[in-house]
């Protein structure tokens, strides 16, 4: 599966009572690019991601993958194109790690079909990439939080999506595995949208940044133009100060509470 172009066209979402949670926004993300979604708690990050993986239907507007509205496609076809790794994890702890990862192949099977050699090859590859081969026979419920997170990323990779949605993918991970997930994001041949709390990480791994505040877009574009001291301070209600780290010119932020030094 090749990377897909993502278009968000005047999409928004409101509750049944009409309360706007995500205000109309439009953006385009070219195939193979990585977009970070950042903002304070309640900014609308999770709602935006839920629109992308078709958990929520936009109140108006559309989400398109390679020019096709995802709500015009069958659920199976969407699942073959879009994979999501969420903060919520499966509750069926009796499954083994391999069985969890094999679930990523479900959209490619008919009701009567069984696992085949190609499925096994893809699952083996996903387990290796996430350094989970030795855990393949372990019950999911016996894993640490970080190991479970890696298993969920492996399941998404086994799905072979053209668009990968990651909701705080480094949660529960130690520093080493955080770095491994970031390296994996950089190396994957797919379009990726990920929410991140760590702005320094977002600036280092993302091609584009979507900055949200209270359900509205503050800015969208390259990290260097979106993550300014002024925009970060306003979005998070802090005093933000950035510097460029040599020799890569990567942005690095430090923060203080408003009115304090």
The CATH architecture of the domain at 6-90 and 166-257 can be named as: 3-Layer(aba) Sandwich
CATH superfamily membership of the domain at 6-90 and 166-257: P-loop containing nucleotide triphosphate hydrolases
The CATH topology of the domain at 6-90 and 166-257, please?
Rossmann fold
Mean pLDDT across the residues is 91
Report the sheet with the most strands, covering strand number, pairing sense and barrel closure: 6 strands, mixed
Shape: globular
Indicate the proportion of strand residues: 25-35%
Could you give the order of strands across the largest sheet?
6-7-8-3-9-10
* Number of helical elements: 9
GO molecular function, one term: ATP binding
Keywords: ATP-binding, Nucleotide-binding
Organism: Ahrensia kielensis
Family: Belongs to the ABC transporter superfamily.
What does this protein structure show overall?
This protein is an alpha/beta fold. It has a domain at 6-90 and 166-257: Rossmann fold (3-Layer(aba) Sandwich), CATH 3.40.50.300. It is 31% helix and 28% strand. It contains 9 helices and 12 strands. The protein has helices at 45-52, 75-81, 97-102, 117-129, 145-158, 175-187, 199-205, 223-226, 229-236, and strands at 6-14, 20-29, 34-38, 60-65, 68-69, 82-85, 163-167, 191-195, 208-213, 216-221, 238-245, 250-257. The strands form 3 sheets. A 6-stranded mixed β-sheet has the order 6-7-8-3-9-10, sandwiched between helices. It has a 4-stranded antiparallel β-sheet with strand order 2-1-4-5, with helices on one face. Strand 7, helix 6 (175-187) and strand 8 (191-195) form a beta-alpha-beta unit. Helix 4 (117-129) packs across helix 5. The longest helix has 14 residues, at 145-158. It is globular.
């Amino acid at each position: 599966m090749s990377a897909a172009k993502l278009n968000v066209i005047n999409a928004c979402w409101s509750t049944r009572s009409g309360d706007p949670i995500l205000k109309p926004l439009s953006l385009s993300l070219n195939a193979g690019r990585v977009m970070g979604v950042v903002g304070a708690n309640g900014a609308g990050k999770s709602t935006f991601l839920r629109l992308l993986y078709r958990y929520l239907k936009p109140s108006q507007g559309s989400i398109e993958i390679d020019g096709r509205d995802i709500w015009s496609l069958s659920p199976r076809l969407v699942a073959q194109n879009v994979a999501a790794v969420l903060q919520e994890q499966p509750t069926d702890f009796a499954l083994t790690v391999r069985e969890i990862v094999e679930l990523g192949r479900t959209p490619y099977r008919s009701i009567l079909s069984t696992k085949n050699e190609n499925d096994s090859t893809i699952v083996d590859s996903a387990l290796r990439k996430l350094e989970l081969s030795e855990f393949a026979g372990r019950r999911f419920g016996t894993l640490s939080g970080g190991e479970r997170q890696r298993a969920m990323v492996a399941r998404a990779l086994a799905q072979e999506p053209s668009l990968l949605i990651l909701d705080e993918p480094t949660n529960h991970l130690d520093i080493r595995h955080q770095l491994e997930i970031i390296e994996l994001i950089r190396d994957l041949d797919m379009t990726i949208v990920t929410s991140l709390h760590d702005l320094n990480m977002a600036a280092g791994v993302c091609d584009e940044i979507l900055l949200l505040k209270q359900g509205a877009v503050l800015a969208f574009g390259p990290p260097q133009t979106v993550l300014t001291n002024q925009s970060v301070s306003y979005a998070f209600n802090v005093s933000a100060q950035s510097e460029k780290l040599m020799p890569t010119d990567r942005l690095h932020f430090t923060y203080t509470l408003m009115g304090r030094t």
